Amino acid sequence: MVVYSFYIFDRHAECVYKKKWTLRPNSTGSKGQQPNGLPDGALQPKGLSAEDDAKLIFGTIFSLRNMVRKLGGPDDNFISYRTGHYKLHYYETPTSLKFVMVTDTKTNNLRIVLHQIYVSLYVEYVVKNPLSPIEHPGGIGVNCEMFELGVEQFVVRPFRRIIRPSAADNARHRIPL
Prior knowledge:
alpha+beta, 5-stranded antiparallel sheet, 33% helix
């Protein structure tokens, strides 16, 4: 699983958290292609600012969510969509927070993963933090080091097991009184 970016939007359509991970060039890429997958000689897309990128992502999920609700009814939900280059995963909380993750096209549905990020990281480190603001006016985002470290570990090492020390290891590290 390759994660390109992760966004959190509040109920006022403000991007309160964004994180992008850079990719290493693919050394096994086919001949005639640039590391980003574009053919040789193709013009590079103009780089968007982080703010413009977040607005574009929110506009996309807003439009697709409304389209799904109009075509399918109020009980249908927008979960994800796939293009030829990426897959966008979407999870909306009961408080209208929107969690969006952009991954490679081979990744399965990450709705459960986004829910776990909300429950395990956002609620624990942002909502329960008395120093964290309840609202994020003017684009003031989530500024919690523990949350950022948790997201980084969750995304970079998603399936690594946590190995608990055995009783023998605990006995070795005891300090004699």
